Amino acid sequence: MYAYILLFVWCFTASSIIPVSSEPYFTTLIITKQVWLPALIIASIGNILGSITTYWLGKKAGEIGIHKLHEKHKKRVTQAQHIVHKYGTASLFFAWVPIIGDIIVTIAGALQTPLVQSIIWISAGKIFRYSLIAAITLHFI
Known about the structure:
By secondary structure, the protein is mostly helical. It is built from six helices and no strands. The chain has helices spanning 2-14, 23-33, 37-72, 74-87, 101-110, 115-140. The chain has one domain.
């Protein structure tokens, strides 16, 4: 039980602005427990809620937050802004991509993309990611 609580916290944190990786713990849990579905569900929920929190922070920070973020990570922010402007909420499918995913979510929040559509795209991407990692892990054990 504690292993799954830790997985939730780890995955929530990984999809926030704190740079940690959830994959090692997720795959280790699948390998040691020999059960993938509970880990997939808990990891996805934690990661989705972390992204929703990041979206909310972006929404609260608004354009001022984007400007400050832009000063620190100019290239990444410019790329993320281009992606969100070009693809809209569908760009949030890639919220799971390391380095730029969290910035895409933050910018989508600041631009106040429609919340329900944003959550749907974030969820689809996160579930896809953890399903793929689980499938690869199970293939090699």
